[in-house]
């Protein structure tokens, strides 16, 4: 597949490092733990590993509050550990993607410590400081993503600083060129060490309105929503100048071979597309979260796939995401039967798939007793269902006390409710979700049509979602039943084919002709004859 790059034909696997594997018995996962589990990832058949932040951090937001961009937090290991992990990932033929968090630092970062000392500090302008409003309140009405004002008053100098997330996460001022240069150096530090790319945290937030104007009131706000939604984020993110900042980051990656820039962006399709950049000089992959945000409805998903495909800029490479550390587990949202259909969808759509650790064994939301809540968002806006801990619990390797994750009590509770929901059990069972993922990944590697082929829409109705993937004489029909009753999909006259893979493990190898019966909760990959 020399005509496409690794991040185009490959599959990305996201690891939340606190929860993958603990190697030193402190109940928290670490880099050495990930290294020990690499044979599993090789067996599963993924191509790249993205690791959520492991930099030195006070852990106010579990690593998304970085105190040093060029080191490893002792909880996770050392620079030697990341070098060893990187070497082994590459030896196994995989790639390593780091999480880069440029929008904000920790309030303990030396840059912020220096910035807050005085109004004349050389680093004052590295962050966003403003005088109080005439009434002494915050400079504008912006709301933090985790609730409350996005401004924190700092007694020492009598000004407020802006934080889009926690007050322990002050936003950097990306309008200041010195900030850009310092961050480019951090990127080069890791690129020089051989990492293959970055997933850039909240990239659409980097530039804010130059005048910091108030955001307008959201007339559609409802009280069960997060506080952030009281306003429309017109001025606080997604500003036109952000594309220049991203193009500069991209240019840093272009100093090296075949590195990938992935942007975390929660925006509707039409606004998302701008993040490919002018002449595709922006992010290689602006994360596409459509499947996470959409109702599990065949007509709806069919439309969004068509809309997304049609909106892509010429040459822009698509991608799809089913889960991440900020969202409820997919198997919980859909239930076990449709979790299998979702796996088939993710791994047959055109574009780079990103798989969240544990989704391949159907991990579900793990109940967190109030005294064990860790997530700062839940602590700030409790009881509204925003807790991210339930989707961040330890990877379930086996059915032992600490599920093979650690020999000590893990930092979050482990799930013991289903004896089969672990790697060891599912690996032995050819009908398990894990085996389905493994077979899908294998097929995706074998079949160019699946990894890099064209997407062709297919008309269907009711609960059926269908499309074709085509490449050099390979013609695959994907037909999924997102509902609980059987349907028959009519094919063009004279069409014949053979079932290559079935979610339910039925009728594989069967010949079809003219139409195909799709049982409830079934997903089929059918090879069509010419
Ligand atoms: C991103 C991360 C999330 C974090 C936030 C602030 O959305 O995915 O986990 O809390 O940014 O860094």
Automatic annotation (TrEMBL):
SMART domains for this protein: Aamy (SM00642)
Glycosyl hydrolase family 13 catalytic domain: residues covered: 14-392
Annotated GO MF terms: alpha-amylase activity
Keywords: Glycosidase, Hydrolase
Domain of life according to the entry: Bacteria
Gene Ontology BP, a term: oligosaccharide catabolic process
CDD domains per the UniProt record, alphabetical: AmyAc_OligoGlu_like
SUPFAM superfamilies: (Trans)glycosidases, Glycosyl hydrolase domain
Annotated Pfam families: Alpha-amylase
Family named by the database record: Belongs to the glycosyl hydrolase 13 family.
Protein name, as recorded: Alpha-glucosidase
Species, as recorded: Afifella marina DSM 2698
């Amino acid at each position: 597949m020399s005509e496409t790059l690794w991040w185009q034909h490959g599959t990305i696997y996201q690891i939340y490092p606190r929860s993958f594997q603990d190697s030193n018995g402190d109940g928290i996962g670490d880099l050495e733990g990930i290294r020990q589990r690499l044979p599993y990832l090789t067996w599963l058949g993924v191509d790249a590993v993205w690791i959520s932040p492991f930099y030195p951090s006070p852990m106010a937001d579990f690593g998304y509050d970085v105190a040093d961009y060029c080191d490893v937090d002792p909880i996770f290991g050392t620079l030697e550990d990341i070098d060893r992990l990187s070497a082994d990932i590459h030896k196994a033929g995989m790639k390593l993607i780091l999480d880069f968090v440029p929008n904000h630092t920790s309030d303990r970062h030396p840059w912020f410590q220096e910035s807050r000392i005085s109004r004349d500090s050389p680093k004052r302008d590295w962050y966003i400081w403003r005088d109080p409003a005439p009434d002494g309140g915050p400079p504008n009405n912006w709301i933090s993503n985790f609730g409350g004002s996005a401004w924190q008053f700092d007694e020492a100098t009598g000004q407020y600083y802006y934080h889009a997330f926690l007050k322990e996460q002050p936003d950097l001022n990306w309008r200041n060129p010195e900030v850009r240069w310092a961050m480019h150096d951090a990127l080069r530090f890791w690129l020089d060490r051989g990492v293959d790319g970055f997933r850039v945290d909240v990239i659409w937030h980097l530039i804010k309105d130059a005048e910091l104007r108030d955001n307008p009131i959201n007339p559609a706000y409802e009280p069960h929503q997060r506080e952030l939604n009281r306003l429309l984020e017109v001025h606080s993110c997604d500003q036109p100048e952000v594309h220049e900042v991203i193009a500069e980051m991209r240019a840093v990656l272009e100093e090296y071979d075949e590195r990938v820039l992935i942007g975390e962006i929660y925006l509707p399709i039409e606004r998302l597309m701008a993040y490919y950049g002018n002449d595709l000089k922006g992010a290689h992959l602006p994360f596409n979260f459509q499947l996470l945000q959409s109702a599990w409805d065949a007509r709806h998903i069919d439309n969004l796939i068509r809309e997304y495909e049609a909106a892509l800029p010429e040459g822009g490479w698509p991608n799809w995401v089913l889960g991440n550390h900020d969202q409820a587990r997919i198997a919980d949202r859909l239930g076990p039967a449709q979790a299998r259909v979702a796996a088939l969808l993710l791994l047959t759509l055109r574009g780079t798939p990103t798989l969240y650790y544990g989704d391949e064994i159907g991990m579900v939301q793990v109940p967190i007793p109030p005294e064990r809540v860790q997530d700062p968002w839940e602590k700030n806006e409790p009881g509204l269902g925003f807790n991210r801990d339930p989707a961040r619990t330890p990877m379930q390797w086996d059915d032992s006390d600490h599920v093979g994750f650690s020999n000590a009590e893990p930092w979050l509770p482990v799930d013991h409710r289903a004896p089969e929901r672990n790697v060891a059990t599912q690996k032995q069972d050819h009908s398990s979700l894990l085996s389905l993922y493994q077979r899908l990944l294998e097929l995706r590697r074998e079949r160019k049509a699946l990894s890099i082929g064209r997407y062709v829409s297919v008309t269907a109705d009711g609960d059926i979602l269908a499309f074709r993937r085509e490449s050099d004489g390979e013609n695959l029909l994907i037909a999924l039943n997102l509902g609980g009753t059987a349907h028959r999909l009519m094919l063009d006259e004279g069409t014949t084919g053979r079932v290559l893979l079935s979610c339910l493990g039925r009728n594989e190898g069967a010949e079809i002709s003219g139409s195909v019966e799709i049982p409830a909760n079934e997903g089929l990959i059918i090879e069509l004859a010419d």
